[in-house]
Amino acid sequence: MLQDLAQLTDGESFDVIVVGAGGAGMSAALFAAISGARVLLVEATGFVGGSTALSAGTTWIPGSAVGAAVNADDSLAAATTFLDRAVAHRSSATLRAALLAHGAQAVAQLETNSQVKYRARPFHPDYLSDLEGASLCGRALEPLPFDGRLLGELFAVVRPPIPEFTVLKGMMVDRDDIGHLLSWSRSPDSFKYCAQIIWRHVQDRLKHPRGTRLLMGNALVGRLLLSLRERGVSLLLHTQVTGLARSEGGVDSITLRQNFQTRTLHARGGVVLASGGFNRHAQRRAERLPGIEPEWCPGAPGHLGAAHELAEEVGAKYGPTGQSDCFWAPVSLRQRADGSTAAFPHFVFDRAKPHTLVVNSRGKRYLNESTSYHLFALAMQAANRFTPCIPSYLVTDAQGLRKYGLGMVRPGGMGLRAALADGYVLSGATPAALAAKLNVPAANLEQTVAVFNTMAASGNDTEFRRGGSTYQRANGDPTWTGANPTMGALSEPPFYAVQLYPGDIGAATGFLTDAHARALDAQGAAIPGLYACGNDMHSVMGGVYPAPGITLGPGLVFAFLAAQHAVQRARSMAAEPAPATPASGEPPAAEPKAA
Questions:
Q1: H helical segments located in 187-305
Q2: How far apart are CA 493 and CA 428, in angstroms?
Q3: What confidence score (pLDDT) does residue 176 get?
């Protein structure tokens, strides 16, 4: 499977060439291979998985058989209504229809013909759960855990998860594990569960640099990689794309460089761009994300946008900005021992739990802490135009930190001493003392805490409606006995805080495509042989983040559609009679038409 570019000959042909080995690119390569195509997968870094490997691996696909197992009453009509309400004019209704129409088919093809397997949680609500058509479960699919040892030497090329999301030096944990880890001393079942996964990890560390029990995004990537190996897909790592060539028939070749080797390869069916988006392209980032520092991005390092320049040279065009050019999450920053910066996304573990609140530079609340991470970070940026809110401060008290942790500090206070020592966490015996550490007005923070504590007693946030939807309440503490599972008083000293910044977690603006994921030119015409999916494709969600997995879901479906169309195109090209010696009176095979 792994190859060096030097092993390929100049002019060698593949049916489909995929640029980028993140979740969407790996899926496109796998779908093409399942269809019998000869496939080359090209990755600029030394790892596969991209930002998918760092994610929860959740994939939003309404209407699948997997989802029906937990919600047989859901329907594509309801999902259509939901997207129409959430996204509206910000994206093409035709593309949204294609997403819903082909999602179940894409999932079924993977589950039937590959190692990729999914499950659906009985409670995993859409983020905008108060909109018509929203669902509380069945649309968000997650990959089953995966044994990385099945990959053999290929395990080393799976991008490791964010280190701060692991425990015991490389053991991945998910929501099931966390529940047991917090209850190990009180429940015999949890003690047994924890003993088993920890013993497995101890054995792993005797042979591997990290745990081989892969969960969430790492599990999805591992399953995709094993499937690609079984299907004979060729994989080039550390390989840059330096050219795309467009002839009268469309984009039909690609030039690659690896170390000092260069090859121009023919793509019969076309080239699929899945390089991860523009986020780390210096110029595009400066233009589209002014004031957002690159170190705030928790995504994988490979999305440099180099392939975007080449795609534009052959006619591809970006779409218009929707709600935002990117998807977002609040992050806290900390320097690692190796000098790199950890950008830790605050998804659900702390900011919406009782005994927490968020304040700006004036020591005042200004947003709903329990909203989705995307809306939270957008609110930070919007409010920052009037009052400095970057950074903001996530504040908790002793009981909040003990129960839920605080960013990189685990529940129970694991890691607190080191976090205080290096300044990641700031603390004070009183709100006023903490305010002095944060350099915010002490009187304001004291008043903010007092008002919040009063509202927490009734569970009614009269300022920002915290916990005002089913999704927001789901982000709270399910064991909470108070009126609002997202609200509890900050009353037990000492008090703690970490700084939050808006971190871009994926591009929403990308190349315009049709329903087959073919890139479009300035006139809206499809460019034959050039496809875009994942974050290279203009967001079918229009920059809105209405539900969990709305990047991986469209990435999967449009990878399926791109591969399907490119393989058909490759077969049509192969069936064309040679012009000099026509074998029949039939006309040459035409470019496949859109369905």
A1: 188-205, 216-230, 282-288
A2: 8
A3: 86
Cβ-count burial of 461 within 10 angstroms (0-12 exposed, 13-18 middle, 19+ buried)?
buried
Q: Are strands 213-214 and 2-3 parallel, antiparallel or unpaired?
A: unpaired
What phi and psi values does residue 573 have, to the nearest 5 degrees?
A: -65, -40
**pTM of the complete model:** 0.94
pLDDT class of 577 with cuts at 50, 70, 90: low
Task: Compute φ and ψ for 313, nearest 5 degrees.
Answer: -65, -25
pLDDT tens profile 208-265: 999 999 999 999 999 999 999 999 999 999 999 999 999 999 999 999 999 999 999 9
Distances (CA, A) of 204 to 49, 144, 197, 426: 21, 19, 10, 36
**Measured between alpha carbons, how far is 50 from 30 in angstroms, rounded to an integer?**
16
Question: Virtual CA dihedral for 534, 536, 538, 543, nearest 10 degrees?
Answer: 70
SS3 for 42-62, per residue? Answer: ECCCCCEEHHHHHCCCCEECC
Is 473 within 8 Å of 128 (Cβ atoms)? no
Q: What is the dihedral of CA 133, 137, 138, 140, to 10 degrees?
A: 100
Rg for the chain (alpha carbons), in Å? 25
Judge contact between 258 and 5, C-beta under 8 A: yes
Task: Tell me the pLDDT tens digit for each residue of 531-554.
Answer: 999 999 999 999 999 999 999 999
CA separation for the pair 354, 373 (Å, rounded): 17
Question: CA 299, CA 506: separation in Å to the nearest integer?
Answer: 7
How do beta strands 234-236 and 39-42 pair?
Answer: parallel
Q: What is the model's pLDDT at position 175?
A: 83
Residue 357 pLDDT greater than 50, yes or no: yes
Which of 18, 14, 10 lies closest to 36 in space, CA to CA?
A: 14
What is the distance between the alpha carbons of residues 547 and 67, in angstroms, rounded to a whole number? 14
Token couple for 378: 């957008």
Confidence of residue 179 (pLDDT cuts 50, 70, 90): confident
Residue 327 has pLDDT above 60, yes or no: yes
Give the rounded percent of residues in the chain with a pLDDT score beyond 90. Answer: 91
| Encoded tokens for 101 | 């129409």
Q: Which amino acid is at 575?
A: A
What one-character DSSP code corresponds to residue 467?
T
Q: How far is CA 418 from CA 421, 422, 437, in A?
A: 5, 6, 17
